[in-house]
Write a structure and sequence with these properties.
Strand content: 15-25%
Shape: globular
Number of strands: 13
Radius of gyration: 17 Å
Largest sheet: 9 strands, mixed
Distance between the termini: 6 Å
Order of helices and strands: EEEHEHEHEHEHEHEEEEEH
C-alpha cells in the first residue's frame, strides 16, 4: 500500500437490540453512531464498518488483515464475565458479540503493533484485552468517585464539559493534546479498576479515576474515557489526537505493505 494512499480504519459496531428502547420486531442489525466515521474521515482515513462476526474468526481475521488501524467507539457496558466477575445489578445493557469481536481485534493488534484508538468504552476494551478489570458501577462500588455519568438521556448535551483531567507529561496523549490538563465530556458509569498489563495511565480525573491509557511501547495504543469525536471539528488539539492515530496507521501500513493481505496492492 503506497504511503500516499489513505489508511483504512476499521470501526466496530454494536448490536441494535443492545440499545435501550429498540422494538423487538426490528430486524437484527449492526449499527454505530456516524460521528465516529466522520471524525476519522476528516483527518484522512477511509472508514470500514466491522460486522460482529464473533462466531466466524476466519472472516474476522481477513477483515483485520485489510485494516491499517482500529478505532473502538463508545457503547454499552462490557460484560464483567470477560474479566472474571459476576454481573452486578447496576451493570447496564450488554452486547456479548461486540465484546468478543473487539477484544479479539485489540489482542491481534497489540500482538502486531497495529494502531488502536479507543474512545470511552474503547478505553475499557483496551484495558480488559490487556488483562485489566473494571468498576461495574462507579457510584455504587466506590462512593469516593465524583459523578461521571453525564448522559444525554439525563438531559446533558454530548459536548457538556463535565470535569477536567490531569495528563501525564511526556506521554503520547500530552504531546498530541499539547497540554497537561484538559476539560472533557463524560458519559460513562464504569471505569478502570485494575490497569491492564503493559499499559500506563496517561490521564486521571481529580478523584483518581484513570481517564486515559496508552501502551508502554512505541506502537500507537491509546484509549481515552471521554468522547473526543464530539469536539473534533471545533478543537484543533482534539484533531491532533485523531490525526496522530491516522499518521500511526499510515506509518504501520507503509512498514507492513509487503507482508499483509493488501488493499490496493
Amino acid at each position: 500500500m503506497s504511503s500516499l494512499k489513505r489508511p483504512v480504519i476499521g470501526l466496530t459496531t454494536q448490536t441494535l437490540h443492545s440499545i435501550d428502547g429498540i422494538p423487538p420486531g426490528l430486524p437484527s442489525s449492526w449499527v454505530m453512531n456516524q460521528r465516529y466515521f466522520l471524525a476519522a474521515t476528516m483527518v484522512g482515513a477511509v472508514p470500514w464498518m466491522i460486522p460482529l462476526l464473533d462466531d466466524d474468526l476466519l472472516t474476522l481475521r481477513e477483515i483485520y488483515e485489510r485494516l491499517d488501524g482500529i478505532l473502538i467507539p463508545g457503547g454499552v457496558d462490557i460484560s464483567p464475565l470477560e474479566y472474571g466477575e459476576a454481573v452486578r445489578k447496576e451493570c447496564g445493557n450488554l452486547d456479548p458479540a461486540r465484546d468478543r469481536v473487539e477484544l479479539q481485534l485489540v489482542r491481534w493488534a497489540i500482538e502486531d503493533g497495529k494502531p488502536v484508538f479507543g474512545l470511552c468504552r474503547g478505553l475499557q476494551v483496551i484495558n480488559v484485552a490487556s488483562g485489566g478489570t473494571l468498576w461495574q458501577d462507579l457510584a455504587s462500588q466506590n462512593p469516593a468517585f465524583n459523578k461521571h455519568d453525564f448522559f444525554p438521556t439525563a438531559g446533558f448535551e454530548r459536548d457538556h464539559l463535565a470535569h477536567e483531567v490531569d495528563i501525564v507529561p511526556d506521554t503520547k496523549l500530552s504531546r498530541l493534546l499539547e497540554s497537561t490538563r484538559s476539560p472533557v465530556n463524560s458519559m460513562h458509569h464504569q471505569g478502570i479498576k485494575q490497569l491492564g498489563q503493559r499499559l500506563v495511565a496517561s490521564a486521571t480525573a481529580d478523584d483518581g479515576l484513570i481517564e486515559a491509557v496508552e501502551g508502554d511501547g512505541e506502537a500507537f495504543l491509546v484509549g481515552v474515557q471521554w468522547h473526543p469525536e464530539v469536539f473534533e471539528m471545533a478543537d484543533p488539539h482534539t484533531r491532533h489526537l485523531f490525526g496522530g492515530f491516522i499518521r500511526a496507521a499510515m506509518d504501520w501500513s507503509t512498514a507492513n505493505s509487503t507482508s499483509r493481505v493488501g488493499v490496493g496492492g
